Write a sequence for this structure.
């Protein structure tokens, strides 16, 4: 008698979905794998879309995890340009927009997120750009000419990276941010202030505590109205005000959703045969003891690998210490650990100068670090943060004491 | 032969360390792993970063920017975000001179 061949369907062919498909094979899964994506592009990595690809320094193909043709070679059926329309949990199948039905034994949702839309009059202005996908990137790239006047709405990571890239291309940049400082959602105030100073130093006109109230058309360009920074004439505007997790399929299927698809530490949703990874997943974090959703390259990559292994039989939960980087004006910044809400920072090096790192403290324990041009120290810093080490603050702040000497101290 | 180019003196690269050198327009990383010298391209294949600023552990070099890792002896990339291997070059010692052969590159 023939053994039933297990079928895994992955919905969402972005970074996480693509990695999961490839990692399933690497983990020895020998059943059928079908990867369904709405975009025409094969799975790709997003970090270069606001940097090297946007600047025209990197070819689009270099963002691909693999060439589209390589998936078949790994026995992965890749269905591109096709939306998944509905999950039928009773019959364990996914219905696609083109009428196809895909039966599954396990379903992995990697549907990512959509750009949060600006909600003001004129938000559909043709000179208004968003940046999430390769198509967005290529469209924006075509408009970024030297001397162009660009208004960036939102001083988060994407907004600041676009501002830096466009500034280096010779554009005139205005950034509008409604919070008191950049990056307020992900990093402590002191770090946000350093990014504000960096951009201003490069000639960016940064307005904080300012809101866009309307976008209009005037003499062939866009007029961006704000509540406290006046009216700004622009050849184009780029909105970077975050993403909204794409939970529509999961919600319609009755899965537990709360700003993301809720999963346990193994990526399992409220339906034991359905899993979720990447930007869309609000996963239980065993280190923190609570659920959290992450929008990082690391999470798209490593969580997808971990959950793929679980689908192939592993019982090891995803438990990486969060990490992200940004590159702006040749400065490399890396954040590791719990970063957004720490009251006390211990600096190693001079704030605002690089290299320098700020260690985020909870009592006498290091819980995170914000690092400017850390170079090879990053390895030690990641280890110190992962260990939540209790460390002598004086030694930590002393650049003459090597980090390697602090690592194993308890 | 003239294909061998002196890039450093032996004491310049201590055991377990990596340095960056420039040969014409090329950037080369020179490693000392347990007394044996190795050379690779110094620029990461993933983004512009110098391996000589990276973290050397055994015979693995980790890129300082995005954590990509390579095997120094072979240049082999060890998983994401690395897609392309690092080019490696032959190294020889002539007295105290470390010489690298860039000819087959």
């Amino acid at each position: 008698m023939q053994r039933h061949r297990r079928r895994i369907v992955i919905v969402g062919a972005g970074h996480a979905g693509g990695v999961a498909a490839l990692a399933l094979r690497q983990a020895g899964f020998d059943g059928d794998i079908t990867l369904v994506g709405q975009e025409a592009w094969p799975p790709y990595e997003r970090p270069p879309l606001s940097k090297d690809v946007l600047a025209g320094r990197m070819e689009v193909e270099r963002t691909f995890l693999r060439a589209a043709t390589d998936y078949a070679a790994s026995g992965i059926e890749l269905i591109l340009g096709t939306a998944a329309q509905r999950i039928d949990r009773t019959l364990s199948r996914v219905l696609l927009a083109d009428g196809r039905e895909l039966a599954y034994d396990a379903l992995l949702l990697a549907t990512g997120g959509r750009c949060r839309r600006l909600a003001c009059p004129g938000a559909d202005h043709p000179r208004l750009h968003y940046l999430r996908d390769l198509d967005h990137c290529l469209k924006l790239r075509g408009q970024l000419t030297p001397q162009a006047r660009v208004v960036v709405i939102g001083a988060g990571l994407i907004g600041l990276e676009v501002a830096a890239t466009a500034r280096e291309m010779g554009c005139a940049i205005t950034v509008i941010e409604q919070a008191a400082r950049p990056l307020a959602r992900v990093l402590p105030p002191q770090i946000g202030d350093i990014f504000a100073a960096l951009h201003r130093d490069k000639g960016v006109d940064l307005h904080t505590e300012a809101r866009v109230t309307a976008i209009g058309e005037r003499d062939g360009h866009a007029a961006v109205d704000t509540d406290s920074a006046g009216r700004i004439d622009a050849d184009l505007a780029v909105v970077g005000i975050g993403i909204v997790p794409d939970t529509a399929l999961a919600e319609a299927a009755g899965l537990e959703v709360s700003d993301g698809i809720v999963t346990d530490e193994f990526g399992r949703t409220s339906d034991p045969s359905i899993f979720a990874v990447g930007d869309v997943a609000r996963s239980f974090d065993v280190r923190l003891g609570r659920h959290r959703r992450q929008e990082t390259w690391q999470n798209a990559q490593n969580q997808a690998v971990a959950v793929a292994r679980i689908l192939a039989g592993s019982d090891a939960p995803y438990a990486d210490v969060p990490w992200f980087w940004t590159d702006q004006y040749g400065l490399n910044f890396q954040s590791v650990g719990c970063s957004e809400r720490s009251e006390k920072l211990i600096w190693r090096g001079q704030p605002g100068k690089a290299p320098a790192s700020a260690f985020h403290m909870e009592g006498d324990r290091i819980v995170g670090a914000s690092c400017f041009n850390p170079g090879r120290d990053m390895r030690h810093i990641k280890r110190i943060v992962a260990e939540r080490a209790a460390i002598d603050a004086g030694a930590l702040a002393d650049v003459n004491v090597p980090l390697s000497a602090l690592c194993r101290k308890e | 032969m003239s294909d061998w180019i002196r890039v450093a003196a032996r004491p310049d690269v201590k055991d377990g360390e990596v340095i960056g050198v420039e040969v014409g327009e090329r950037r080369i990383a020179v490693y000392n792993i347990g007394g044996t010298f190795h050379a690779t391209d110094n620029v990461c294949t993933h983004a512009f970063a110098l391996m000589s600023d990276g973290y050397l552990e055994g015979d693995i070099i980790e890129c300082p920017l995005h954590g990509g890792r390579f095997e120094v002896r072979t240049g082999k990339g060890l998983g994401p975000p690395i897609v392309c291997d690092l080019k490696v070059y032959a190294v020889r010692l002539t007295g105290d001179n470390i010489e690298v052969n860039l000819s087959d590159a």
Notes: Residues 297-311 of chain A form the longest helix (15 residues). The interface with chain B takes residues 19, 45, 52, 62, 297, 301, 323, 325, 327, 332, 374-376, 378-379 of chain A (CB under 8 Å).
